[in-house]
């Protein structure tokens, strides 16, 4: 047990299991509005795309695993690109059911598991050419355990690519026509998430924490990307919106990391 610090200064006591239960309930209620959102070839808001970055390379005949597969659209993309086997896991029953429907006409092996990413629901070790996670990894309540799992799933020489909301993004708030820092970037830990109207808890972690935990898990870091891609056309945007163009002009919304499994 440990203390979860809430932004207004109050405290609650939650275990990781209770946080997972809370987050699963929130996702079951909200899954429909995330259907097909933030899926490959997109990595996240105001970010370069896979078509531009080409981090995966040729996936023909590759065995791929999606951590936090959601509605299955990233796996669908991999299938179109020629992947040999499509595997995915997600915490949410509704997401897995939706992904099964979306992928039912794939002409390759599809295996989907309803499971927290902190647990191995029966995935093979040293098996996958590629493991990836598109805007999902940050939901883990135990980063070290999740990355250790990912490392075990990969073949020697396999790659892990993931994107997530940049940890400086939600430190900013828009108040009285200005962006101000309302929360410390340096203080890490579980917090109620404002974008989810405080119905879910997500760990705030510094970018260095993601990088160092990857290294501690045995990975070799190949690329870290937090470039911002703003739309070329001028458009009217609400600066108070969670992913606003005005905020993206100040700080990145998304970061992407590519790592590989080598010999420890």
Q: How would a crystallographer describe the biggest sheet?
A: 7 strands, mixed
Helical percentage? 10-25%
Reported CATH architecture: 3-Layer(aba) Sandwich
Strand order of the largest sheet: 5-4-3-6-7-13-12
Using DSSP, what is the number of strands?
A: 13
Distance between the termini: 33 Å
**Beta-strand content bin:** 25-35%
Indicate the overall shape. Answer: globular
Class per helix and strand makeup: alpha/beta
CATH homologous group name: Vaccinia Virus protein VP39
Q: What is the number of helices?
A: 7
The CATH class turns out to be Alpha Beta
> What string gives the helices and strands in order?
EEHHEHEHEEHEEEEEHEHE
Return the CATH topology.
Rossmann fold
| Nearest-integer average pLDDT | 91
Primary descriptors:
264 residues; alpha/beta; Rossmann fold; two-stranded antiparallel ribbon; 23% helix; 28% strand; globular; disordered N terminus
Summarize the structure.
With 264 residues, the chain is an alpha/beta fold. 23% of the residues lie in helices and 28% in strands. It starts with a strand and ends with a strand.
